[in-house]
Amino acid sequence: MKAKHIKCLAVLFSAMTVLLAACCKDSFDYGVFTGDDINQQKKYERYDNIVVDPSSFKSKQVETLKADGKNVYAYLNIGSLENAQPYYKSYEDVMLDQYDGWPDEHWADVTKEKWQRLVVQDRARTYKEQGFEGLFIDNADVYYRYHTPEAYQSLKSMLTSLKRQGFKLIVNGGDVFVSETLKDGSSKRLYDGVNQENVFTAYDFVKKKYGRQTKKDKAYYERYLKQAKKAGLDVYIVEYRADRKLSKKIDAYCERHGYEWYNADSIELN
Q: Per residue in 94-136, pLDDT tens?
């Protein structure tokens, strides 16, 4: 074989290697598996950053994942109370309205000291003992639903306590709360990143159908995430059943902006 042909093949092989490596990196940076149980851990080998339901894990499994170089985040519901939780009956007195779309869940009164102790002492201590170093904070949207100064300060107080305990924090959703912390300059002191669901896709809880996000809401989320990134926060996105064409578009979008994203098979994240 002539030297120039060998050189051309080498260049082609190198380009293909870079392309494949880039595809793999974009595909497997981030995964959210809060609907899984411990028997699904095999799939986590392909991801660098994973979010899991801590009730399904034991310390040994967490340490194994960390030893493999993975950042493991425990799901922590900061703003609502789920019927399935073993402590549910003891906290019925902090329940507020039913959570739309989730019949077995109620918003929690985050201003109650009893609730705050559950989150920042009981739950956080348990997850720390399990070996988790990061928390995926869900339902800060409670501030959108119950828009009071007391609720805002209560959320900030809980996040401050969790940060002091050494956790890395990702706030899922909660754009109204997050936007206010961006305005008053407290965001970086309170948490490390934000996750936003359904920037490009959407789920209709009434019709139980997956689809595309509206142009108006998509534009809103894009502006919001850009502001979060500008403030020095890590940005993550979760989409639901994005097809191949849309996935390529999201890949390119996240590559341009330095975001990580996960394409979930279902709203249950299993």
A: 999 998 888 889 999 999 999 999 999 999 999 999 999 999 9
Q: How far apart are CA 228 and CA 231, in angstroms?
A: 5
- How is residue 135 annotated by DSSP? E
44 by DSSP, 3-state: which?
helix
**CA 189, CA 192: separation in Å to the nearest integer?**
8
Question: Residue 4: pLDDT band by 50, 70, 90 thresholds?
Answer: very low
Per-residue model confidence (pLDDT) at position 40: 64
- Interaxial angle between packed helices 3-28 and 244-257, expressed in degrees from 0 to 180 and rounded to the nearest 10: 90
60 occurs within a structural domain: yes
7 belongs to a structural domain? no
Q: What's the number of domains the chain is made of?
A: 1
- Give residue 5's pLDDT band: very low, low, confident or very high (50, 70, 90): very low
CATH classification of the domain holding 100: 3.20.20.70
Give kind and range of the element (H or E) at residue 262: strand 260-264
- Tell me if 14 is assigned to some domain: no
Which of 190, 207, 267, 195 has its CA nearest to residue 236? 195
Residue 9 inside a domain? The answer is no
- Give me the chain's average pLDDT, please: 89
| Residue of 248, 239, 257, 226 lying closest to 198 (CA atoms) | 239
The rounded radius of gyration (Å) of the Cα atoms in the chain is 20
